[in-house]
Amino acid sequence: MKLRLFAISMAILMLIAAGCSNSSNEGAEGQEGGDGSEETLSVKMAVQPWVGNGPFWIAEEMGIDEKHGINLETVSFEQDSDMNAAFASDKVDVANLATHTTIRMKANQDLDMKAIIFMDESLEADAILATEDIQSVNDLKGQRIAFEEGATSELLLQQALSEEGMTLEDVETVFMPAHQAGLSMISGDVKTAVTYAPYINEVLDKKKEEGVHLLYTGANSPGLISDIVVAKTSFFEENPEVKEKLRAVWDEALQYWRDNDEEGNEIVAKGSGISAGELPGILSGLKFYNSEEQAEKVSSGELKEAAETIQKLMLEGGSMDKEINVDEILDME
């Protein structure tokens, strides 16, 4: 009898041991992602409803982020100020910002941050529109010009004027949001407006036959109007692998879009709040960069030159408190 009880006790102990072993193994696999791979990193990314963010929306939709060990969550903001505040206060991990915004935040708020992806630059997606009687930037002297203060439109106008030895003091500024600037051209309230797509297309659709044309665009100053992916240096120090993961996600999603434009356009249109039919006109004025194309822009010195031009214009315009070393924020080698 004692022998039988001993055998039963041993069997129970072996079953318990086996169960503990299985539980331990399952816990380890769950920590590593279930297949022995490294743990997925959750990343909150601040964006705006702008088509330049398209590859990241595609990555979310198609699971490209998870393929590279990231659980990406894009958080959309309507206003620049709200997105900038969320980034500065660590409500998000990463932000897709205009290059000039990044430089200004570094100077005025002394944020320690790095830009790791050069996403896109505007060619004809940002433009100065003018009536038929205004055929050169010199003709802008004394004109009433509608544009959004502190935005890319102001930067583009400053650059155009500076090339001809002028400043904003040489024109009559009429501040209003970008979409209203376009409407003011359509209504005839002003002869010149600075705005961006899709508002450019709306103006030209209604006024091109009357001689309204593109006087100056982002293509005249490459890199001036551009977007980059940034995060605080502390986030990269805590997650050293995230730079390459984000770059890999961007590259693969961008290539997917290039290879599958119809499907990609549907995803991007949804994220940016426009119709897929509007996208081709906007995309024709943008240039996107993958890592290889970005590296060429960095090695040529073109990117740094554009950043220094942006800084110069903002210092002259009074929107920056101090000069910075732009090399400190560019991490795109």
Automatic annotation (TrEMBL):
It holds the Pfam family NMT1. PROSITE patterns: PROKAR_LIPOPROTEIN. The keyword Cytoplasm does not apply. Residues 1-23 form the signal peptide. The keyword Signal applies. InterPro entries: SsuA/THI5. This is ABC transporter substrate-binding protein. It comes from Siminovitchia sediminis. The lineage of its organism: Bacteria, Bacillati, Bacillota, Bacilli, Bacillales.
